[in-house]
Specification:
CATH topology of the largest domain: RNA Polymerase Alpha Subunit, Chain A, domain 2
Mean pLDDT: 87
CATH superfamily of the largest domain: YbbR-like domain
CATH architecture of the largest domain: Beta Complex
Number of domains: 3
CATH class of the largest domain: Mainly Beta
Structural class: mainly beta
Number of strands: 24
Largest sheet: 7 strands, mixed
Number of helices: 5
Radius of gyration: 41 Å
Shape: elongated
Order of helices and strands: HHEEEHEEEEEEEHEEEEEEEEEHEEEEE
Length: about 300
């Protein structure tokens, strides 16, 4: 073995050493300088370009995947944030659309694929609607006092927002607590947009967001629980078998001299029409002047004799 190596170096020594040096140099050059082409995939958030103040654009697809090809050195230089994906909102109008995704990336890369290439969007124009301001009184004033009147600084509230949300608003409410009050008072009341189910509609703007409310409280009142009577008229030739009122009684409030003359209150009158065997429904309570009640209507069921 040793002899073979000696023989190898003995003859054409200079040429062989030169060949080894050249080979080593070429190997270093190839390994250090070669920049192979490769591919990689990136998850990129999608933004909205050129949005308008006239409408809201909704899209569920928040991220896309982008496949790029480039020399290995380019990927080594790549930094998070060098690539951007967006959908162009220019010249949109109300409706639903599939918009192409556009991608910008550093020089030296080639785009292979965008997934998904299009994003479904819903365009909802901004509108406004005027709705009456409602104030709901909660709690009770002191025992001998009632709310004589409520004055609002504004009767109409403007609701502004995306059309879908604004159209879902049914009421704009504010709440005033009475508990423990015996004198007139003023309060600033926040107003809230409410839908049919009584839930707050959050993606709208209520203008103004609050109003001033003045509550006029009058003292010298008494309370009394009285039965509720409902008068239902039957069809010609028929008789009423039974009338059920729920609830059967109501607490009323009035000045003492007025209250002393009241033994019951009545509902609005109703009629069982020909061909029907019963009446069911809500009826308003009819109150004398100067009298208030905890509830304004009751549920009445009336049936006819067979």
């Amino acid at each position: 073995m040793i002899r073979t190596i000696k023989n190898f170096l003995k003859y054409n020594k200079k040429q062989k050493i030169s060949a080894l040096v050249v080979s080593a140099s070429l190997w270093v050059f190839v390994m250090g300088s070669q920049d192979p082409i490769m591919s990689s995939s990136y998850k990129v958030p999608v933004s909205l370009a050129n949005p308008s103040r006239e409408y809201r654009v909704i899209y569920e697809e928040q991220n896309i995947e982008v496949d790029l090809t480039a020399p290995r050195s380019k990927f080594a230089e790549y930094k998070s944030g060098d690539m951007h994906a967006f959908i162009n909102a220019t010249n949109l109008y109300e409706g639903e659309f599939d918009l192409p995704v556009e991608v910008s990336f550093p020089k030296g890369f080639e785009l292979d694929q965008i997934n998904p290439a299009k994003i479904h969007v819903k365009v909802d124009p901004y509108i406004e609607k005027q709705i009456p301001a409602e104030v709901i009184v909660t709690g009770s004033a002191v025992t001998d006092s009632i709310v004589k009147g409520i004055t609002k600084s504004l009767e109409i509230i403007t609701v502004i927002g995306p059309k879908t949300e604004v159209e879902s608003v049914r009421r704009v409410l504010g709440y005033v607590g009475l508990t423990g009050n015996k004198d007139d008072f003023a309060i600033n009341v926040p107003m809230t947009a409410i839908d049919d189910d009584g839930r707050e509609v959050k993606d709208v703007r209520v203008v103004p967001s609050s109003i001033n409310v003045t509550v006029d409280i009058e003292s010298g009142f008494k309370k009394k629980v009285v039965p509720i009577i409902s008068e239902i008229s039957p069809p010609a030739g028929r008789e009423i078998a039974e009338i059920i009122v729920e609830p059967k009684t109501v607490e009323i409030t009035a000045k003492e001299d007025v209250l002393n003359n009241i033994s019951s209150v009545s509902t609005a009158k109703a009629v069982i029409t020909a061909g029907k065997e019963r009446f069911e429904g809500d009826l308003k309570i009819v109150l004398p002047e100067g009298v208030t009640a905890q509830i304004s209507e009751v549920y009445v069921t009336a049936t006819l004799k067979k």
